[in-house]
Amino acid sequence: MSSTSLRAPTREDAAGLDARDPLASYRDRFVCDSPSDGVLAYLDGNSLGRLPRTTVERLHEVVQHEWGGRLIRSWQETWLRLPRQVGDLIGSAVLGAAPGQVVVADSTSVCLFKALHAAAGLRPGRTVLVAADTDFPTDRYVLQAVAEQRGMAVRWLAPDPDGGVDPGVLEPALGDDVAVVALSHVDYRSAYVADLVTVTAMTHAAGAVTVWDLSHSAGSVPVGLDAATVDLAVGCTYKYLNGGPGAPAYLYAATRHHGDLKQPVPGWFGAADVFAMAADFTPATGIEQMLSGTPSVLGLIAVREGVRLVADAGMVAIAAKATGLTELAIALADAWLGPLGVTLVSPRDPVLRGAHLVLRHPEARRWSDQLAADGVIGDFRNPDLWRIGLSPLSTSYFEVWTAMDTARTVLAELMEERS
Nearest to residue 239, comparing CAs of 46, 23, 44, 16? Predict the structure, then answer.
């Protein structure tokens, strides 16, 4: 990205892309562009999605009527069914999963803990969990804890940190001692998209089962869990699904495994009869067995509103816009930021790239901090990365152009100070 002869897309080019964007109107369905928010460009939807306007309205209704008026009666009237109903919506709209395989419960960390224990239990006698040493910290911490608790070992893959796990990296680690392969579909740093279909097939051929973390893919790129015969998966809802800060996560378990699943946190909401209050725990026969304690009703309501927007727009259109937004950002980075020493970490091939981009520069921390102070919100990742998330439903092409224009000005000033 060092050539100064590259043509940068113009302000008019960006405006033209917005004019032709079939998803442009969705931006108005989020709380955006308030004069008082101090935000020039929000490029952190891969960490926390914007607030849907319908969420504000629906939460007010639930608080006033269902909680304030109906009180505990709302459990029987609507709330008890929410974990499965919202799970089915996520499954159909986002994950490519038939009904009865997705439930909304707990945090991503707790869902992953449950999924890993359940997956290991499907392969008794096998002693190894396979994962990537570049994965998100919580994933690694949870995996290590599950391995210790079950007397297993972790076989760490060491992919290129600027890429991700491809079949060639995985193959040498597979063997008849492997119980579970646990990977992220989209790498949280580089945005590399793993080959979910091929990796799942390789894992099955080795006699193991898969657990996928979909946190950075669901709502931004196609997934297709059923078609790929994935075993278990988890993911958060506060990124591209716009469920809000701390929103509950979801857990997918393929129907074929439901009769053999044993999760480590049994609770009354995972029982066959929630109100039996029996002396011994009898798990539900379906996906509800992966529930534990009382679900977060307000969180579930917010998740449902965010996912409804994704369902309405459709994943084909969303994925196409994710490609368009990242292509524009790359073109601008090549032309404007390359001469300032910035390099692209994320894959250039859109098939291998999620909806966020990672740029490397020695001054990334100061650059990111100053941009945030100027209203361009991305995030810094150690040691020298600026990461920007381009959420297709709420990010405009002009917003990307404005952000990159500001980014080159700020970085040029920082470099001048340094010299």
Answer: 46
Q: Catalytic site residue 26?
A: no
Which entry of 139, 213, 334, 405 is annotated as an active-site residue?
213
Residue reference for tokens 């930021």: 337
* Topology (CATH level 3) of domain 78-313: Aspartate Aminotransferase; domain 2 (3.40.640)
Q: In DSSP terms, which residues pair with 193 in a beta bridge?
A: 186
Q: Mind listing the pLDDT tens digit for each residue in 161-218?
A: 899 999 999 999 999 999 999 999 999 999 999 999 999 999 999 999 999 999 999 9
* DSSP state at residue 242: -
**Residues facing 103 on adjacent strands:** 251
- 72-91 pLDDT, tens digit per residue, is 999 999 999 999 999 999 99
Catalytic residue among 27, 50, 114, 239: 239
Burial, 406: exposed, middle or buried (Cβ in 10 Å; 0-12, 13-18, 19+)? Answer: middle
- How far, in Å, CA of 78 to CA of 155, rounded? 44
Task: Pull the structure tokens for residue 312.
Answer: 């309405």
pLDDT category at 34 given cuts 50, 70, 90 is confident
Distance (Å, whole) CA 418 – CA 128 = 49
Residues 111 and 118: beta-carbon distance below 8 Å: no
Burial class (CB in 10 A: 0-12, 13-18, 19+), 260: exposed
CA 123, CA 262: separation in Å to the nearest integer? 12
Assigned CATH for 11-52+314-418: 3.90.1150.10
Tens digit of pLDDT for each residue in 267-300? 999 999 999 999 999 999 999 999 999 999 999 9
Is residue 387 among the annotated active site residues? yes
Domains of the chain: which residue ranges? 11-52+314-418, 78-313
Q: Is 135 among the catalytic positions? A: no
Given 114, 353, 387, 408, the catalytic residue: 387
Report how far Cα 310 is from the mean position of its chain's Cα atoms.
Answer: 13
CB 184 within 8 A of CB 212: yes
> What three-state secondary structure class fits 248?
coil
373, two tokens = 């102070």
Instruction: Kindly write down the DSSP assignment for every residue of 59-94, as one continuous string.
Output: HHHIIIIIITTTTTHHHHHTGGGHHHHHHHHHIIII
My answer on whether omega of the bond before 383 falls inside 30° of 0, hence cis, is: yes
